Amino acid sequence: MTARIGVITFPGTLDDGDAARAARYAGAEAVPLWHADADLRGVDGVLVPGGFSYGDYLRAGAIAAQAPVMRSVIDAAAGGLPVLGICNGFQVLCEAGLLPGALTRNAGLKFLCRDQRLRIENAGTVWTSGYADGAEILIPMKNAEGRFVATEDELDRIEGDGLVVMRYVGDGHGQGNPNGSMRDIAAIGNPAGNVVGLMPHPEHAIDALTGPGTDGLAMFTAVVQAISGPVGASV
Amino acid sequence: MARVAVNVVIKPEILDPQGKAILAAFGRTGHQGVTSVRQGKHFELEVDDSVSDADLEEIAASVLANPVIENWTVHRLEDTDDEAFVAEASSTEAADA
User: Fold this and answer.
1) Residue A147 to residue A163: CA distance in whole angstroms
2) Which of A43, A115, A176, B55 shows the greatest Cβ crowding within 10 Å of its Cβ?
């Protein structure tokens, strides 16, 4: 069976085109989902792409988190539906309460756009099972509000439960923690491992022609295999 | 009908880089003596009599503020004109601080 991956478009979403392309590269059918429509069209997984949904009014992702399509995504995620939030999509998932913590203005106040090195901290999620624990990948990042924050108690709980999925690494030019994210956190997941959010953009690193490499593709092939394969098909 | 002011500020333990940038600007404008700036948001709501204090708290906690990173205050400001409203909101906030 061909996996059907939904790609949400809010007013102000920018990266739905590349997210759909990444789903297709991974062998899935990309299914457009509209913010005002609560119907998930029977998809097997959902991508919440980057951009500036609702102009980042109120807080980045705050209005989108209340959209009809997100109410359906929240319900489906509780039932195990794979959901990946990228950049603004990560902000939306945090605002929707699907992931802990929040994303705030970068410590240096600058919009940052660069290729970023990350370390896989948890290869046990449905989105990162194509990587090895400790593997390093290089994918683009581009944001102004990517600084992950939570209370120290919450951070301890996140770490203790293994919810840190990726960290910023490296100490060379253009590497390391770019924005002051607490404990260098770039990506987190939920305890079940079906919901993951990250600020950098794996969908921009699926083809050497259009990105720094193909390190991001494994996130999409992993979920397609989880959906299509006879073992581990949780949806 | 009632008018309501909701003030939202980033929690003290969360870095506020915008506030820091404003503080740095005071050094250049010659305004001495300011030791800290925290930037927040001010919302003005008009609500009918069906909206209770509990409803307002729910509105503030679930939409206007993100409890992970922000604190907020809710003030009912009935029977005030526009100028008095803003002044009241400002002085109330100052009194809270």
Assistant:
1) 17
2) A43
